[in-house]
# Entry
Amino acid sequence: MIPVKRVVFGLGILAIFLLAACAQRPVVCPDGSLVRTVAECPQQEMPPAPEPPVTQPNATQQAGETVKEAIMDPTIAKLIEKGKTVKSMSFDYVPIEMKGTGPVLMTLSNTYYVLGDKVKVDVAWNKQNPKTYIDTVYLDLATQTAYGYCLDRDRGTCSSIEARSTSFADWNIPYPQDLLTMIPSDATVKGSRTYLKRETTAIRWKQDDKYYEMLIDQYSGLPIRLSIYSDDFYTALVGGQEYRELQFNNVKPSDVTPPTM
# Structure
């Protein structure tokens, strides 16, 4: 028989091995150290959260949140909308031209009849070419073409009414409704004024290094004068134009149709 002492001793050794096997395994911390539980791992500082990307402010934001895009004066906006409804018009075009030491408002001017893309120009006698004697020009704004005619046969200068091709740029002008599109949103109203026997609204604005003043007919919404100045006192006139004898919605298709050969 195996002695009892040996059996007891063997059982003790076996128990020790079993206890060792059942003992908890060490925990490896993020820094590499060994501990018995995760709670015993050394505390580490969390990396700072990434900062949000920096966006560059736009021009309006740079000027301050209180600065907003200019809103057009309602009086001006109403006049512009009224002018856009005009379907046809006629007027004497009088440019302000620089002559010698200063600007001169031309007294003799061409008369324009406008209906949609069709335009007829009655040429002032002092602007007629003695070589061609063109006294009437028909423009097509869509195709940008121009044809001149000599229609005043009573003077004995016209041998025929044959159409003559002429320069479109020589006869095309800025029309009243074109001027409405150039008014900026920050234009300001400077009161009412009677001009060319019409009640007008005067508006002003600055563009680049020039100062503009426009007189808009209150009844039709069409400009009758544009003045361009070089100073903010609006005294040094350097250019512009007038639309005299302005009538609107009075032009018929036959008025702007070239004559048949």
